[in-house]
Every structure is written in C-alpha cells, then in structure tokens.
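Entry 12.
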Amino acid sequence: MISPTPRAIALAAALFPIALLPALVHPRLFGLWIVAAGLVAAALGLDALLGVPAERLGLELEAPKTLAVGEPGSATAVLRSPRAIRALELLVECHADFAPPPPFVARLEAATPARVAIPLVARRRGKLSIDEAWLRWTGPLGLARRRKRVALRRPIAVVPDLHPVRAAALRFVGSREITSGAQVERFVGDGSEFDALVEYVPGLDHRAISWRASARHRKLLCQEFRAERNHQVILALDTGHLMSEPLAGLPRLDHAVTSALLLSWASLRMGDRVGLFGFDRAARAWAEPQGGMGAFPRLKALTASLDYSTAETNFTLGLTELSARLRRRSLVVVFTEFVDTVTAELMVENLTRLARRQLVLFVALRDPALDAVASARPRRVDDVYRSVVASDFVRERERVMARLRRVGVQCVDAAPAELSSRLLNRYLDIKRRELIA
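Predicted 3D structure (tokens):
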C-alpha cells in the first residue's frame, strides 16, 4: 500500500498558496495551481517508482524456542533489501502475554542484511507466539510511503524461571541437611535407617551398641544410622483463578511453580521420589513419583504445561482423586490460595481428610501489600477504612492457618521472596524429624 508522507502533504500545502499568487496579477494565471498539483503528483509518483517494492523487501525472524517467564529475552529480525533504505520502521505484534516491544527504525544498505534485536519479556507461562510484523518505509525523496504486513506465527514455549531454583540449589548444595539421606551420616540419632556396624570407641553413644552383634563377633560393635530415603513427595499445584492473580509482578501460580521445582530438585537430590498433580475444577496433570535427578527435566516440562484457569477450584474432587492415586504414605505439598474463612471451608475440610492418611504441607503466598496496608499509619479517614478491611483479611488468614495446624497440617505462609527458602527449610525439618514415615 502506497500513501503520501507528511513531507508530501507539507510540500503540497506550501505550493498551493504560492501557485495562487499569480492569480492576483491576472485571472488567467489561476490555473497555475493545477500545474503545481501536477508537479507534486509527479514527484510522488516518481518517489513511488524509485522506492523498494514491497515484494522485494524480505524479513526473517530468528526467535528462541523457549523463554523463561519474567526473564528478558530477544528475537532477531533479519531485513533484506535490493536497494538502500534510509529509514525502515519495524513494529512487531506479539501475544498479549508478552510485554509489547517498541517500534524500531533501521537503516538498510543495498544487498546487505540488517539485524534488529526485538526484546521479549513474557509475563506468563504457556504457549505464546510472535504473530506478525509491520514494515513501513519511504522512497529516496521521502514523499511516498509503503507498508507491508508479514505474518510470522512463531510459537515460543514460555517455561518457569529456573534462575531462582539454580541460585537456591547452589546455596543449599553444600549444607549437611541437603545431603541427609544421600550420604552416610556420622551423627547417631539423626536417622532411623540402619547403615553399618562399627567398632566401639570411647565417645560413641552407649545406646548405639548392638549387644547381639557384639556377642557374635566377640567385640563391642555400634550401629550407625542414616536418614530414611525413598519417601514419596507429591507436589499438588492449584491452577484455579485465585492462583492466576498477579503478585510481585508474576501470577501466584508462577511463584508456586518456581518453589515446587526447587523442592523437587532438593527431594530428588536427597533420594526421595517426586510426583506432580495439577488441578482446579478437575485434575489437569499427573506424574507418577519417580526418583533420580533424571526425573527433574520431566517435572520441569510438566510444570510448563500447567495453564492458567478461570475456573473455581474444586478441592473435593481434586484432593479426593489425589488421595485415591497414592498407595503409600507420602508428603503432599499443596500450593493453593484462599480469601477468607468462608471460601476456605471446603478446602480445610478436604485437607483435614487428606491429612488422616498423608503428611500434608500447606503452602500459600502472602501478599506483602496487604500486610503493609494493615499496619500502615492512617493519615485520612479512607486510610482507616482500608486498614480495617486489610486487618480483617489478615486475621481471617491466620484463623484458617490455625485450624489447619490443629488437624496436623504443616503450614507455610510466606511472601514470594521468602517462599522458596522457607519451604525448603520446612522440608528439611520434616526429613530430620522423620515425620513422613
């Protein structure tokens, strides 16, 4: 499509009154404005002919196949033209869950490709895409403007951001707790699984002496234990509409997925078997518990496929189905959200039923902004109203947590920045106290 540029319109607007000036001298010279209009039209047509045709202008897109949510990435547009273009405008349209990329202006040389980096920042996980590109350029005179639309339809899989997982993994990898159950422990009483018999030396706990083995070998022998391994850890992720709400720049579900991946990495490292269950109004995903670090890529791929939902979470159906799938006692880590005691009634009831057979760890994301409003010093009457409402929500939240603790459910209620470390510390404490067995 060809259209006049602002320069062409300004030129025509400037020539028109100049062409009318001779009419003030003689009426027969009135027709000179037609000549001026013809000159402008001829210049516009010449510029259109000298410009690069739309079919000769090429665009190729180099885009990553995967991108982490919230992590800055980029795609590269490769532009080719048979003739030089002083200013080529490029605008790329992406999926609505991408941050809109800004327009770009590139200079193209004849037969030399130009590369334009397009920033990509995904605000949510899922299957997103770069849809199309719009190109706009002018001829050498700057009077005629051409436009071209290029359909791209380039899919990009937006996966969970693993940088927090790697950072936390490196922080915990050298600690003694993270190797509990994966290496022999030298501290009697830290585990219940028999590991070896060692000869008694002064300083060892007398309670660790095995009198039967000592009588058989005719010397004092002590038992060494290690933390029990091969437990089942099930990550149950609620994908309902409350988990789609943004918190600290990302949906709650993305914060939960990041923490779940960190916990799965630690659990697999410690010799446990990890499975995953996703649900909202029905079961959305299920992965049988598997051991070994080779199971981590499988869990990562499955969490990337967990989509956001606008449905109300059905805790009765979801947790009942999960309970039916578990054939042995497991640690069930439930990532979910609630608003108040009324909406949490069914959730508490089903978690109580699940806790009779399994060890349940309830994980919720606390909104720091809500706590800030509740504790802020009011300056106006409206601030008092907001503070009272926020305080009511905080008290309702604490009331639900207290009910869950009374029925034996472990609870973690933390802000997004603290969730991963607090969750991992609670898991290590559960392993140390051997509450899963």
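Annotation: The chain has three domains: 1-159, 163-180+229-433, 193-226. Residues 177-189 have pLDDT under 50 and may be disordered.
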